[in-house]
Write a sequence for this structure.
């Protein structure tokens, strides 16, 4: 979905698919394509502009395509994150031919599809469970002789996880019913990504110093990786700041 200069505002997508005999010719660049460089990744679902941009209705004229990554003209380049790992990619398309059979849904119906996909992405369990393994390892260390502070912190954390899980399942249920819970999904995403940051901060307050400053062991490693990785979660699927603005508009307070 995302492009250079087009992140949370997907209606400004500029990568184009032009109709040609038997299919479409694609030109442009997509950014943050997760796992596109890895083995076993052969296809990409891509949101493209198939009609000229109408500034009064920017959501129109968008379509989704399934593109084979081994097609001539497709170039996938890895992007290293702050931890030195490559999860994301820049994917360039230069005169890439995509057959008509690879149009996903109807031509021009891409926006309605992508709204549902984003709602599921923003509210999915990975939003609040990517640091769960850190909590799991910390609890193994702390439960044998917990202090009152430890009990309080762990109780708050577990209660928050259960609440976010119920909210996530609620969004999935609305999507299954055919609803479009854009605002609700944005709210879950904002709360979940903030929770993951708070979780690491709380664990660092109650874990022993020898664990926090150790260079060995699974838990110290997970903590370090979490501190580096978690900030980026506020960007994926739409930045939290933009989503808060969307929530405010739908509530009529902006």
């Amino acid at each position: 979905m995302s492009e250079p200069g087009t992140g949370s505002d997907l209606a400004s997508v500029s990568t184009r698919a032009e109709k040609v005999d038997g299919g479409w010719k694609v030109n442009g660049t997509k950014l943050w394509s997760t796992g596109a460089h890895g083995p076993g990744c052969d296809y990409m679902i891509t949101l493209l502009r198939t009609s000229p941009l109408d500034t009064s209705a920017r959501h129109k004229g968008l379509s989704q395509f399934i593109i084979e990554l081994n097609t001539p003209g497709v170039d996938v380049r890895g992007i290293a994150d702050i931890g030195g790992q490559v999860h994301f990619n820049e994917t360039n398309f230069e005169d890439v031919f995509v057959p008509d059979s690879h149009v996903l849904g109807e031509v021009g119906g891409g926006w309605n599809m992508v709204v549902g996909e984003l709602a599921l992405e923003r509210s999915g369990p990975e939003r609040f469970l990517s640091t769960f393994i850190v909590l799991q390892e910390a609890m193994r260390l702390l439960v044998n002789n917990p202090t009152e502070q430890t009990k309080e912190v762990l109780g708050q954390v577990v209660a928050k996880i259960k609440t976010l899980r119920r909210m996530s399942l609620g969004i999935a249920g609305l999507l299954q019913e055919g609803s479009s819970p854009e605002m609700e999904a944005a709210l879950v995403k904002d709360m979940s990504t903030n929770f993951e940051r708070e979780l690491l901060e709380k664990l660092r307050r109650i874990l022993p110093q020898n664990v926090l400053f150790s260079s060995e062991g699974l838990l110290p490693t997970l903590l370090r990786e979490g501190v580096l990785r978690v900030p980026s979660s506020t960007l994926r699927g739409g930045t939290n700041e933009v989503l808060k603005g969307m929530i405010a508009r739908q509530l009529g307070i902006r």
Notes: The longest strand covers residues 86-99. Residues 112-251 form a domain with the Butyryl-CoA Dehydrogenase, subunit A; domain 3 fold (CATH 1.20.140.10). The first helix runs from residue 110 to 123. The beta strands are 16-20, 23-31, 43-49, 62-68, 74-80, 86-99, 103-104.
